Amino acid sequence: MTRSELIERLAARFSQLPPKDVEIAVKMILQAMSETLVANGRIEIRGFGSFTLTYRPPRMGRNPKTGLPVPVPGKYVPHFKAGKELRERVDRHKEPEPAAVC
Amino acid sequence: MTAQLTKAELADILFERIGFSKREAKELVDAFFVEIEAALERGETVKLSGFGNFELRDKPQRPGRNPKTGEEVPIPPRRVVTFHASQKLKHAVEQLTHGEEVR
């Protein structure tokens, strides 16, 4: 499923809304998610999962052409951890567990 | 921007900036994630250009151990979701300096 297919599916669900508004909404959701990560914030979507940044410390790498060592600076990379519900739903090998009683 | 973004904040953004009703905003945010979950459940890759891709990986069975008893227990084969950030997003977060506080 692509971003435009997602917009189409949502537009079909929300037929009372102008399709253009649905498109803008998807754009804004993704933009807010990106901005949160760029500000080193955390995204927590219950059942779906969470996004955080993880830090990769600086290390010595190698230029693959010359074989010479080059320093690779430390950097942040986005990380996604699927939530329990999503993990269970995609795992076709597993039968869904009965809902936990809290 | 808050340090933690949740569905409630996303709904507030749609309410404030597009003028959706509170109810429409909440329902749209819910549906956004429901549709992504449903596609993944069907075994489809989800590609959100500019943000990243959600992919599925089938992991084979591998030997594991019960950490309490030390007993060998096989870890059954499973399908897992992985996320690969877009070049654009990767690039944007790489600019952050380590230890930088939330802006």
From TrEMBL, chain B:
PROSITE patterns: HISTONE_LIKE. Pfam families: Bac_DNA_binding (PF00216). Residues 55-76 are annotated as: Disordered. Keywords: DNA recombination, DNA-binding, Transcription, Transcription regulation, Translation regulation. The keyword NAD does not apply. Transmembrane segments: none annotated. It comes from the Bacteria. This protein is one of the two subunits of integration host factor, a specific DNA-binding protein that functions in genetic recombination as well as in transcriptional and translational control. HAMAP family: IHF_alpha. Belongs to the bacterial histone-like protein family. Heterodimer of an alpha and a beta chain. This is Integration host factor subunit alpha. It comes from Tepidiphilus baoligensis. The lineage of its organism: Bacteria, Pseudomonadati, Pseudomonadota, Hydrogenophilia, Hydrogenophilales.
